[in-house]
Amino acid sequence: MGAENDNPANAPAHDGTWRVRIRSTTGEVLGAGILLGSETVLTCAHVIPADGWPVPAVEVRVDLVGVPDAEPVTARVAEGCWVPQRADDCGDVALLTLSRPQPAEYAARLFRLPPKPRRPVRMFGFPEGNDNGMWFAARIAGTAGPRAEWVQLNPESRGDVVRWGFSGAGVEDEETQRVIGIVVSRYDDSDSVPSAERRHFSYMIPVETVLRHLPGVRRWVDGDPGVDERLVSPLTDGVQDIGFAQRLALWLRRESLAGREGIADVETVVIADDDSDRYETLSRAVTLADRELAGVGAEQAVSSAPRNTVPPIGSLDLAVDVTGSTDTDVAKRVADRMDLKALGDTSPFSRIRANAVPLTIVAVSVDRAHDPEALVRFMEILADRGSRLMLVFRDPQAPALRLAEWLFRPERERIDAWMGELAGQVTRAERLEREAVERRALLSPALNAPYPRSASALRVNLLRLRGDPGLYTHHIIAKMAAFEHAAATVLRRAEAALCAADEQLKRIPELEGLLRASAASAGARAVSEHPELIPLQRAAVELLDSVPYDVAAAQEAVDRFVRAVNEIGP
Q: 474-510, pLDDT tens digit by residue?
């Protein structure tokens, strides 16, 4: 396929010569894409009209918009490189093969970069009326979608929301100018939401997800994979240790606690040399959590997995076996993974100290590192810079394990303060549930689906947490985080039930006012001349005075009376 790798390795995409516009043979703009190598274009599958199965046979035109005087070139979907979007928002990527090779120096190099929140990005697409293209700016919000394949991008301004003509466009990291994904879709709130409150944002597919669906793209990708090869699982042996798998999935699922002052979100785990089941369970978890690996044999592994043993895709940024590694080796691995920069001193430690490092990292065989204690001290720096860490030791008596447990032990007063916050959440959940039940009691049972009261169970579990023998060790963090998530779920459910009941109840005074106004407009004379109005009015009044209220029946009765009055005329 020509000179595919002429670009300098690990160099950012240059001058935008890789940006392409994709058009139909009649000239209609279909979307955008990225030139890879000399003969290949990466885009979204939905950009290409699906006129065939399993691969569209339609021919499209590709314009190298960043290359002056470049001639259009035709292209078709490459064999085996068509992955349409599934119902769970997975897929929607495709490769096109150009009919005529282009100079390889025009092509882009893609880069594996964890899509961390608030990182600024930009994209160049071809909206309707502007075939020459324009820039939009955004910030990464976080993963989204049922399988978390997509990454949400929040626009820098209301005018920066992508639209038709941006699908397939390369997403560039502002800081490094790396191409880190492609635009795939947009979201708009419905018209029922007030315009001032309406949200609009877009989604991208990260490079590592592209690789999961199109492994052949790997030849055009820079940056190290997120999981060391020694830790990759074949996903063929099932879950060997279900309890440990659930613990790993919970830790990977929950949000970072790094923002909670004084508490480093660090777990220590011991996996003895002869505990192959536990080791394979760890390997399985990091494989399923990685964006790039989660598609290799993962569908069967996920579908047959026991409950709560599957971590979200993209919940892990780096899994590294540190056997024999120095702290400098690991620092370089982390700095390269985030493509961190630093002014002046370019040592990996300086690159890390000069930046936030909001990564979720699993480090395996910490006690087998070149200098385990020095590596643990480095891990403290990562925790201070915002990383979530799972440190895996092979020897339960390792001095480095004792050091890690001492360094990352949460302070007693911090745990007490957090426990106080949790108690406040339980109290609020109890109050909201009580109010929701009281409001719902005023409504007809027919309008109320069964409502599970869960705050009492929260209170019991909070007492168990307070009595946990590991209360003032770092092991309590996972339990408290899980409890916090459960409390938030109960709070949301109670708030929704209370809001729904209030919405129903406020209809009663509204209907009463409507009934009075309609009766007043009819007047006493109309009622005496039209006695059929009397039972209609009486029925409506009775329903509006009856507790529990049947709001739907009352609405129907009032509507009948109002229609009858309107039919009388002036």
A: 778 778 888 888 888 899 888 888 888 888 899 999 9
CA distance to 117, 517, 520, 543, 559, per residue, from 513 (Å): 50, 6, 11, 14, 12
Of 66, 80, 81, 62, the closest CA to residue 24 belongs to 62
Residues 270, 401 contacting (CB under 8 angstroms): yes
Three-state SS sequence of 346-379: CCHHHHHHCCCCCCEEEEECHHHCCCHHHHHHHH
Cβ atoms 344, 327 nearer than 8 A: no
147: which DSSP letter?
Answer: T
3-state secondary structure of 506: coil
The pLDDT tens digits of the residues spanning 394-421 come to: 999 999 999 998 888 777 777 888 899 9
Q: For residue 430, what is the DSSP state?
A: H
For every residue of 82-102, DSSP letters joined together read EEPPPTTS---EEEEEESS--
- Give the predicted TM-score (pTM) of the model: 0.73
Is-contact 136 176, C-beta < 8 A? no
Task: Enumerate long-range contacts of 432-436, CB under 8 Å, 24 or more apart.
Answer: 432/491, 432/494, 432/495, 432/498, 433/490, 433/494, 433/497, 435/498, 436/494, 436/497, 436/498, 436/501
